[in-house]
């Protein structure tokens, strides 16, 4: 147990120390102060090229979005915090999605199509492209241990920040973060 606490302190401390070196124009402190306190900037690391599918069986990968800033959200139909968070992700996509930015909602694990449709209907999700990772291969390769987990990916296809747990993505702080991340 002591090793886990030490490891967590070292990792979180390293993230805090490393963040200014690569953060560019992103004001991470403003995001934290604005309600995204669980958002941790990390040293840029390429995202895996592992494929995942859409509900119709089409194959996709995160490299499909190269050139855009992408907010990748791993969720599941059985996850209560996911149910609370999903409407704000949908609003964020409706407000800021386009040429420079995309939210991608990836249902990780066993989520039967009827359960996914029911979840999306109840959460009133209309703007998010929903993708599927039924064997959790991409989730495992990205180190996702629980849900929800949201990963911010830069235009070059590098993970630059991660948030474990739910957040209000329609908040001013979240929108400011995305605007900074998509700025030229």
Large-scale geometry = globular
Helix percent reads 25-40%
Class in CATH? Alpha Beta
Mean pLDDT rating: 86
For the record, the count of structural domains works out to: 1
Subcellular location: Cell envelope
Keywords: Cytochrome c-type biogenesis, Redox-active center, Signal
Signal peptide: 1-23
Main location: other
SSE blueprint:
Elements lengths: L1 H21 L5 H6 L5 E8 L5 E2 L5 E2 L8 E7 L4 H17 L4 E8 L4 H10 L7 E4 L3 H5 L7 E5 L4 E7 L7 H11 L2
Parallel strand pairs: 4-5, 5-6
Antiparallel strand pairs: 1-8, 2-3, 4-7, 7-8
Keywords:
single chain; 184 residues; disulfide oxidoreductase activity; Glutaredoxin; Thioredoxin_ResA/DsbE_sf; 38% helix; alpha/beta; Redoxin family protein; disordered N terminus; two-stranded antiparallel sheet; Thioredoxin_CS
What do you see in this structure?
- By secondary structure, this protein is α/β, with parallel strands linked by helices.
- It has a single domain, classed as Glutaredoxin (3-Layer(aba) Sandwich).
- 38% of the residues lie in helices and 23% in strands.
- The protein contains six helices and eight strands, in the order ααββββαβαβαββα.
- It has helices at residues 2-22, 28-33, 80-96, 113-122, 137-141, 172-182, and strands at 39-46, 52-53, 59-60, 69-75, 101-108, 130-133, 149-153, 158-164.
- Strands 1-8-7-4-5-6 form a six-stranded mixed sheet. It has a two-stranded antiparallel sheet with strand order 2-3.
- It is globular.
- The N and C termini lie far apart (44 Å).
- The model is unreliable at 1-23 (pLDDT under 50).
- It is found in: Cell envelope.
- This is Redoxin family protein.
